[in-house]
Amino acid sequence: VVYETDIENVRRVVPEPLEARTNIVIAWISEFELGTTQGGFKEAAIYVQVEHDGVEGDYEPFLYVNSHLPLTGGREIWGFQKKMAEIGLHHEYEAVRGQVDRLGHQIIKMLVVPEDQTTMEEVPWSENGVYSLKYIPGAEEGEPPLRQLVLTPGEFTAQEEKLFGGRASITYERSEIDPTYLLKPKRIIKGFFGQGDLYLPLGKIVHRYEE
User: Fold this and answer.
1) Nearest CA to 97 among 88, 106, 105?
2) pTM for this predicted structure
3) Of 37, 44, 50, nearest to 133 (Cα)?
């Protein structure tokens, strides 16, 4: 689901030195079945649009999976801030419903009605990839943590004639542990549903906080 929020909401969830550049939010729930090295799993993420030194990208303030393997790999390699959660993706009547439940709260609920075939050009991903904040606490008392800002140029390709767009809605239940509600929707732009392939290479360290 692609929607607009207030730009101040985006600024509240973006770490320095990233800067919020639009008020657009992309909320995404996916199910990975084949072709992964970590087995099948579901994942949910919320992306905001940012820039660093003139390089545009997306940032994930909230990211969830339902399997420990992709959680560990995503954190240790790229610094993705993944948490465990219950994630559902359901076909109901003419719509597709996705939801994320954690600690007794439904922190993400979205509905998409797949009405017309579309292309990935309609989804406003940033061309340069996704920024992540890699944070590893020091193993020794007094040792500073490892903190890096990483940019990863992943690519999602929709399968032919298997991407649809249509009406959509999204809601966030308030949780202070997982405050997705900070990015509350102001105007829904469009919903998308389909099948595709994700390529995720190694990232590039673009900022070292300890220097």
Assistant:
1) 88
2) 0.92
3) 50
In terms of average pLDDT, the best of 30-34, 103-107, 119-123, 197-201 is 103-107
Tell me the per-residue pLDDT of 130-164, one tens digit each, with 9 for 90 and over: 999 999 898 999 889 999 999 999 888 888 899 99
* Strands, E assignment, the chain: 2-4, 19-32, 41-52, 55-65, 82-84, 86-92, 95-102, 105-112, 116-117, 130-136, 146-152, 155-166, 168-171, 187-199, 204-208
Residue 71: which H helix or E strand, with range?
helix 68-73
82-84 and 55-65 strand pairing: parallel
Nearest to 87 by CA among 134, 17, 31: 31
Q: What is the pLDDT of residue 193?
A: 96
CA 44, 116, 184, 9 torsion-angle sign? positive
Calpha distance 117→163 (Å, rounded): 6
CA dist 82 and 69 (Å) reads 11
Could you tell me whether strands 19-32 and 41-52 are parallel, antiparallel, or unpaired per DSSP bridges? antiparallel
- Please tell me the distance from the alpha carbon of residue 118 to that of residue 110, in angstroms, as a whole number: 19
pLDDT digits (tens, 9 = 90+) for 58-75: 999 999 999 888 888 888
